[in-house]
Amino acid sequence: MRDMKKILITILFLVAISFAISFTFFNTERGVSLFAQIDDESVVREVDEQSTIIVENLPQSSLSHALLERIKTSWPWYVTRASGLTAGFLLIILMLSGTGFITGSTFRFLEPITAWATHRALGIALGLSILVHLTTLYLDEFVDFDIKSLLIPFVSDLRPVELFGFPVGSLYVAFGIFALYVFLLVIVTSLLWIEKKPRTWKAIHILSYVGVLFVFVHALYLGTDLTQGVLRYIWIGGGVLVTIVTLQRLWRVKTV
Q1: pLDDT tens-digit profile of 87-99?
Q2: From the CB of residue 125, how many other CB atoms can be counted at a distance below 10 Å?
Q3: Helix and strand tally (H, E) in the chain?
């Protein structure tokens, strides 16, 4: 059983991260690409509207060499985007499956033992994705994130926000940090207390709904791939779906 869980965790994580990287690496909707300015004399551009790559000859160095040099400095940003997308969509699936335990909808697709193992695997994969997201943000040379700004709310000055005319700092980054601590607590207690302290674990697990709200806003306003286009609508749709199943769960608890 343990071997099956390890295999499931590995598959979920690799498939999710591979999908996210493949999408972000060649995404043209943002108008920002790896195929941007290569040097002062030659350019490789992408045409956003048609998603067409136009290549001009490089007089001094090969295209492959130029791109490899570009990758050396750009890879943390792409992995940050990929891991963020992975974590976000894993979270939606995790919330839907978890809520489905209460409403019974999850068991329409999976047997109880398999459903619990899958839910646990999704949680661990989420934790790994968050860890990768934080690590590559720290390594990125173009975005100024140090340990403090990654772990302490409102320290970062990325996209500061004003509420009712009052500056509140980088609110959306702070939401991401709040979510980090919420899910760190949920994941750790799920691994350690689900059998030993079920009541305490259940009470803490409810915080997941607060955490998913933080993540939703954080990703919607800071996610490079969620600023517009299909993924933005999918993300909003996922948030609406989680809201609906959450209300169904509350109604079920109230009426049962």
Answers
A1: 998 999 989 888 8
A2: 25
A3: 8, 4
